[in-house]
Write a structure and sequence with these properties.
Layout: H1 2-31, E1 37-49, E2 52-59, E3 64-69, E4 74-81, E5 91-99, E6 105-107, E7 109-114, E8 121-125, E9 128-138, E10 142-147, E11 150-156, E12 162-167, E13 178-186, E14 189-198, H2 205-208
Parallel strand pairs: 4-14, 6-11, 7-12
Antiparallel strand pairs: 1-2, 1-13, 2-3, 4-12, 5-6, 5-7, 5-9, 8-9, 9-10, 10-11, 13-14
Length: 319
């Protein structure tokens, strides 16, 4: 009888001990993520087939590794660049900016993001403003930057500018470049999750933005195929007719007529956006409304003209 009475207590004690032992393991699996393994080496080759990019890597221990770049792999190519990387619709980050008397920010160091858009922010520090946004209009003097719907002018601080490029385009990785991979090791396989390459040679914007490949940023101009004019187009036959006597073909020679008084030839006026828009001065020391509502008050509307509600004066004239 004593054994029968003790059995339920023993079973309960064993069950409680099991829960106590399993609880730490369950909690550990929920809170901690597996640490990523790091692999360093050099690039043996880059093979591009359509949208697929395969990178051959030789690890430091001599073992070869094939990495098929997919959307799940975060690719970061770091390199120096030139001023032409500052182009519309591209992400840019700037630090320690000062505000000039005309309300524009002055900067000489820029980090341009190709293929990805960093989170937009404007933070004021004791050293100046740290701004990350999207480039708008660009000219020789500077550009506009959009930060969460607010647009401000950025002026180039001199001609000695420093441009850093961060791209997600794996086709920019050259053979022989040092590479760092981060991922998980599963048996004999290494599952790459991150890829980072720093190029020794600077990138040239004209080559990166060429129509041959896509880097996630739109080129400033697209190349067009034109004929040289030596041969007529297919189906086109020269007429061979000479113009009538006294008729001059349009555009052969300038007429020499002076434009009418007050008329200015096209092109005298600079295109819109060549200079930062006047009047875009930040309000006080907080142009982006950091810590404030930042919303601009709408312009006061003029009251509509009221109709004359006065009644006509009565007259004593008899009819």
């Amino acid at each position: 009888m004593l054994k029968l009475r003790l059995q339920p207590f023993v079973a309960s004690a064993l069950f409680i001990a099991f829960l106590c032992a399993a609880a730490p393991l369950w909690a550990q699996g929920k809170t901690k993520k597996p640490e990523l393994d790091k692999v360093t080496g050099k690039v043996l080759g880059v093979e591009v087939k359509g949208k697929a990019v395969n990178i051959s890597v030789q690890k430091e221990d001599g073992e070869k590794l094939e990495v098929l770049v997919t959307q799940k792999i975060a690719v970061q190519v770091n390199a120096a660049g030139d001023k032409d990387f500052i182009t519309p619709n591209v992400g840019v980050a700037m630090e320690n900016l000062a505000i000039g008397g005309n309300g524009a920010f002055f900067a000489r160091t820029f980090t341009v993001f190709l293929g990805t858009r960093p989170p937009q922010s404007a933070v004021q520090t004791t050293s100046g403003w740290n701004i990350t946004g999207i480039i708008g209009q660009v000219n020789d003097m500077g550009f506009t930057v959009n930060v969460n719907g607010s647009t401000r002018n950025v002026a180039f601080d001199g001609n000695d500018l420093t441009v850093k490029v961060v791209s997600s385009d794996a086709t920019l990785i050259p053979e022989g470049a040092p590479i760092e991979l981060e991922g998980l090791t599963r048996g004999k396989k290494f599952l790459t999750q991150r890829m980072s390459v720093t190029l020794e040679e600077p990138l040239v914007a004209a080559e990166v933005f060429a129509p041959k490949g896509k880097t996630g940023a739109k080129p400033k101009t697209t190349a067009k195929t034109t004929t040289t004019g030596d041969k007529p187009g297919v189906g086109d036959k020269p007429t061979g007719d000479k113009p009538a006597a006294g008729d001059k073909p349009a555009g052969d020679k300038p007429t020499g007529d002076k434009p009418a008084a007050g008329d200015k030839p096209a092109g005298d006026k600079p295109a819109a956006g060549d200079k930062p828009a006047a009047g875009d001065k930040p309000a006080g020391d907080d142009p982006f409304g950091v810590g404030k509502e930042g919303a601009k008050k709408p312009a006061a509307k003029k009251p509509a003209d009221k109709k004359d509600d006065k009644k006509p004066e009565a007259t004593n004239e008899k009819t």
